[in-house]
Amino acid sequence: MKTIDIPKDGFEGFKKHWRQDALSGFLVFLLALPLSLGIAKASEFPPAMGVLTAMVGGLFVSFFAGSRLTIKGPAAGLITICAGAVTELGGGAEGWHLALGVIVVASLIQVIFGFLKFGSLSDFFPHSAVHGMLAAIGLIIFSKQIHVLLGIDPATLKGLGPVELYERIPHSIMHADPRVTLVGIVSLVIIFGMPYLKGKIFKRIPAPMVVLLVTIPMALIMDFKHTEPAFGMVSIGDFWSNVGFNASFAAIGTFVFWKYVFMFLFVNSLESLLTVKAIDGLDPWKRVSNPNKDLAAVGAGNAIASLLGGLPMISEVARSSANINFGARSRWSNFFHGFFLLVAMIFFIPVIEMIPNTALAALLIAVGYRLASPNEFFKTYKIGAEQLVVFVTTIIVTVATDLLLGVFSGILMKFVFHIINGAPLRSLFKARYDLQESRQEYAIKIKDAAIFSNLIGFKKLFNRLKPGKVVTLNFAEAKIVDHTFMEQLHHFEESFEHKGGKVNVTGFEYFQNFSNHPLSARKVSLNNNKLEIKLNDRQVSLRKYASDFGFTFYPQKVRNTFKFKDFPILQGVKFQYEENVLVRYTEWARYEISDIKLSEFALQAQSDLVITALMISEAEIHLPDFALEPEDLWSKFSEGVQGRDIDFSDNPVFSKRYYLRGSEEKAIKEFFNEPVINFFESHKGVHVESHRNKVLIYLQRETLNTEGISELISFADELVQLCQFQPEVR
Question: Which of 39, 115, 680, 713 has its CA 20 to 30 A from that of 296?
């Protein structure tokens, strides 16, 4: 568990980490192959051209990208634009060739934007409008793919808008092909059912690959090749002879051509830049990407892919987050993902043509559902009611008209809310602040408003601050601070403290939050009395527990990222905050119990996980750095990614029960002597992480009630007492 060494780039990184990156690239390839086929088909492109795009994204763009762990490939968020461009430019092969010309022009502009350092312009768009745009795309994807899943001929749906497609669903159900529908339903059961299976092995296996392993034999048994229409199966044809100069610029003088140039440029750049920012938050080594360099690299990849016949690519969030979870170290994982796709297109096209289209439709329906799931509405509402209004407005206008009008309406609605809540017109687009610099500190007074439309100015300010100093941000003279700015402030705190500085935020004492979310928008309260914190049922029980057992209880949400820095619990997830903190000093050490909220990324959606954990610090014990967790079927497979399992030949029960890893094997074996091993053998299911003489303990990856917390404390007491009698390990 070596967390200090940052993986190298280039051939030095290849030599050191090729095993981990090749393994991760292979697993991402299993995820990318069916999704690339499905996205291309839904975009009115030849299916294999989605794979071509992912190949270019891996084999070419990985060498020039400004991000280390993102996977480049086609994305569901561009399906509606691609399909719209092909249809409006004539449809069929002609529409495809003309749409490729649109993408080439947009790609060249995208490269120029990267060199002009336009990457920061993505910060202008409020998150609620962007998420509304993605949710609308999810609804549009569902409206089209549900008919494909039911076995309806796509030719009968040509020219129908999203609302008309939803109205046609009952008719499609009445005329569904039973056998095709059965395969589609089985696919949906696999996709939505696998997350509920317990065990790490099920979390690691890509659900799309399981879908193919099940549905291909089903299609063979039912002889889809001969008993179903041609549109029921994936068709690749002579792929390699079709790869060549396919773009046509014959429509360059038309309004439709330039409308789609702008739409591709806007959505492609925005979604790619937002993904890069999100993946930086998941990077275990907290490396900061260069968004401008990444934008230029994606633009170059788009130009090459579209000239050859492929879809546009982005830094894709589902595959990128999976890449991190699979243990990727460097940009070589993206290269390997492209390499394995190349191998598949050379040797396995006959196998790919056995895939039923209803299975791909199920995969896209799952993507659409996650983009527009009820949880997305609920999470947006938790941030604030005004965020939900912007979110829903963007969805309705996008589905009813088009994407650009939808985003514009969301931005307009956001401005209306800010003006109503006191944002002065002079500060809508200008960041207003006072900056005082001393030898040790920056003192910054934020004035008027800190909102999405003036965020670029504040980012320029943050980028000017030299690391290593103390930054005090005072919001006492501000009137409103929105959710987009609060998220940027959170990122700034993390990155600045990571570089050795410290950030203090003051002046929020008399602000009224729009919701209980820690990053919600807030405005100055007309009533200058401090707002009372309302405790929920869990917090009431924890407060009583704290009183009964001598703890100090802090219910507030705290974003103390560095408390957990370099602990394996943060591997492949993003730390959001901790809350419900219980603190007590014992005669042995300082105990701090808290609910830690983490975010995991699956497909296009973010899922939240809350773990109750206990951290031991300030103890007179000496431990090596290690991570110990229950061993399961996935552990052996994880050794190449997370580190070799350290076994003890004289203690087979312990070695079988626990997966133990760490970089200093000799010190770990000295510490895990007979009494320590016997202690852990007597406990099942416990996770223990040691780093820099601090110990983090959690029983399960879930929230504990007071009974579980008592069990956690009892285990910690025994462990600390045992460690006090251990010889010092160096």
Answer: 39
CB 545 within 8 A of CB 551: yes
> Using CA atoms in the order 4, 9, 15, 19, what is the torsion angle rounded to 10 degrees?
70
Residue 671 φ/ψ, nearest 5 degrees: -70, -40
Query: What is the predicted pLDDT for the residue at 106?
Result: 97
Query: What pTM, to 2 d.p., does this model score?
Result: 0.74
pLDDT at 508: 85
Q: Which of 602, 99, 14 is nearest to 334 (CA)?
A: 14
**How close are the terminal C-alpha atoms of the chain, in Å?**
16
What is the spatial distance between Cα 116 and Cα 293, in angstroms, rounded to a whole number?
Answer: 10
The three-state DSSP-derived secondary structure of 650-702 is CCHHHHHHEEEECCCHHHHHHHCCHHHHHHHHCCCCCEEEEECCEEEEECCCC
Predicted pLDDT of residue 195: 83
CA 574 – CA 437 distance, rounded (Å): 32
Q: Which domains does the chain have, with CATH numbers?
A: 10-400 (no CATH), 425-524 (3.30.750.24), 538-724 (no CATH)
Q: What is the pLDDT of residue 631?
A: 83
CA 550/CA 107 separation, integer angstroms: 62
Beta-carbon count within 10 A of 82 CB: 26
Residue 340's contacts (CB-CB under 8 Å, 6 or more residues apart) are 25, 26, 29
Report the DSSP pairing between strands 626-630 and 552-554. unpaired
Query: Which H or E run contains 244?
Result: none
Q: Mean pLDDT highest for which of 454-458, 506-510, 526-530, 533-537?
A: 454-458
